[in-house]
């Protein structure tokens, strides 16, 4: 629904062909929801939407062992398998992700965080530091591709694995250390619920995202390649964890769209610790403006709007004037 009150139908619905495709001819739903602000950009209000669902190829009742947060989920290995590959460059990783999408295989296909992965794989802060200081996850998971194959039969699994390995070989990927792959094969919960996500808060109790958006696979990887430009200065000052590769890019809809998220961690006992996330986010925005990227959600709170507004033609001043004109307050 546009601000004028006009109702716009997109994709196949616009051509009276039913609810089956979000793309044209004509305007595309993906074109509205991706980008810098997506559905928050003021184009209008989405009043009705159809969602396509893939069937779950696992058991109706999840086979769990143990107790939360240390329970495990193990699924039949002949129909559920995890593969993790490493790549020399983000461009090669991106190409593999796109080709996997074209082949329409993979229940989950993503470039995952490496520091967050280490936190989720350990039981305590001491365990994390022992693993992190070993350098294993930095070496093996700086540019990883996680692929979870879920199929209806062993024969289908054999086919999808063969296709996957051919794509990875052609794009220059190799398998990671078997010890890392075993972590995920031993507990498939990572791809289903991540019931132990609270472990990321153990180190200093402070973490925040600096990127949260969706666009094409190619654009999200361009955003990822620019992250060290602003993050490394905070790492050099000892303000955040030394983890410039701690971002994920998730392929969606067989590579038609991708989501990016960067997580940075810092300690609350640092002087002025409350200003650290604002400074990182401001530098993140500056980097995006310089490159023409769009991967950060717009400011939501007044303090953040006032801090970042000068980067965007002083939009915080105009926002305040609008509030005053309509008497809405803050």
Determine the CATH superfamily of the largest domain: FAD-linked oxidases, C-terminal domain
Count of separate structural domains: 3
Helix count from the secondary structure assignment: 11
Largest sheet descriptor: 7 strands, antiparallel
Q: Which value, in Å, is the CA radius of gyration?
A: 22 Å
Arrangement of strands in the largest sheet: 6-3-5-4-8-9-7
Mean pLDDT metric: 86
Shape assignment: globular
- Low-confidence segments, given as residue ranges, are none
Oligomeric state: single chain
Counted beta strands: 9
| Named CATH architecture of the largest domain | 3-Layer(aba) Sandwich
User: According to CATH, what is the topology of the largest domain?
Assistant: Vanillyl-alcohol Oxidase, Chain A, domain 3
Structural class: alpha+beta
How much of the sequence lies in strands comes to 15-25%
H/E topology pattern: HEEEHEHHHEHEHEHEEHHH
Could you give the distance between the termini? Answer: 26 Å
Helix content: 25-40%
CATH class categorisation of the largest domain: Alpha Beta
């Amino acid at each position: 629904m546009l601000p004028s009150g006009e109702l716009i139908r997109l994709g196949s619905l616009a051509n009276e062909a039913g609810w089956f495709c979000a793309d044209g001819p004509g305007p595309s739903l993906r074109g509205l929801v991706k980008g810098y602000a997506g559905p928050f950009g003021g184009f209008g209000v989405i009043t009705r939407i159809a969602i396509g669902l893939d069937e779950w190829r696992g058991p109706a009742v999840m086979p769990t062992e143990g107790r939360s947060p240390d329970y495990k989920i193990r699924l039949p290995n002949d129909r559920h398998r995890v593969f993790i590959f490493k790549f020399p460059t983000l461009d090669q990783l991106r190409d593999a992700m796109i080709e996997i999408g074209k082949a329409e295989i993979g229940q989950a296909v993503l470039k995952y965080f490496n520091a967050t992965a280490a936190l989720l794989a350990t039981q305590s802060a001491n365990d994390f530091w022992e693993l992190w200081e070993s350098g294993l996850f930095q070496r093996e998971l700086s540019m990883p591709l996680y692929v979870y194959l879920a199929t209806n039969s062993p024969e289908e699994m054999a086919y999808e694995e063969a296709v996957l390995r051919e794509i990875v070989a052609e794009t220059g990927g190799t398998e990671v250390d078997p010890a890392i792959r075993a972590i995920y094969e031993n507990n498939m919960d990572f791809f289903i619920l991540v019931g132990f996500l609270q472990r990321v808060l153990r180190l200093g109790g402070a973490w925040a995202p600096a990127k949260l958006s969706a666009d094409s696979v190619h654009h999200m990887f361009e955003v990822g390649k620019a992250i060290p430009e602003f993050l490394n200065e905070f790492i050099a000052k000892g303000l955040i964890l030394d983890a410039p590769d701690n971002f994920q890019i998730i392929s969606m809809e067989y590579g038609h769209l991708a989501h990016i998220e960067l997580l940075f961690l810092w300690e609350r006992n640092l002087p002025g610790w409350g200003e650290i996330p604002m400074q990182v986010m401001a530098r993140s925005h500056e980097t995006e403006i310089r490159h023409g990227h769009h991967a950060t959600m717009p400011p939501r709170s007044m303090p953040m709007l006032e801090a970042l507004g000068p980067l965007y033609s002083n939009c915080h001043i105009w926002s305040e004037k609008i509030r005053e004109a309509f008497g809405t307050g803050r």
